[in-house]
Design goal:
alpha+beta; two-stranded parallel ribbon; two-stranded antiparallel sheet; 3 helices
């Protein structure tokens, strides 16, 4: 399952909080990824292309790396590498938000969704 966002609306994704509330929550919900797209028509000048490059290098890229690192570490710690973490409760602060705001890994609010052939709370049993 994926979510899709159009880059031409990237203005609303420039705040870190907006990125967490879109891309981060997609991860929290167990989505496999998000897709960003746009038309080259919206990037006709060198300045527009360089602006997008700067945004990707300074804002979007580091956040995606943080989310990817969090997902890999959570899978290893919580799911023995045989599943992916999915947010357990939407009432509590997510571990991803804590990582981004405080640089602390916290997987307490995540449960495992085991990959095929694995089962158990921590995906440690052959299915």
């Amino acid at each position: 399952m994926n979510e899709y966002y159009m880059i031409s609306y990237v203005g609303f994704l420039t705040l870190k909080e907006d990125l967490i509330n879109t891309i981060g929550q997609s991860f929290d919900a167990g989505m496999d990824g998000v897709m960003l797209w746009d038309s080259s028509k919206n990037f006709e000048s060198r300045q527009e292309c360089e602006s997008l490059q700067n945004y990707i290098q300074s804002t979007l890229g580091p956040l995606v790396k943080s989310i990817t690192d969090f997902a890999e570490k959570c899978s290893t710690v919580n799911c023995n590498g045989h599943g992916k973490c999915v947010r357990n409760s939407w009432m509590e602060t997510s571990g991803l938000q804590m990582l981004i705001s405080r640089n602390v890994y916290n997987f307490e609010n995540y449960k495992c969704r085991c990959y095929e052939a694995w089962k158990g709370v921590h995906c440690n049993e052959r299915g």
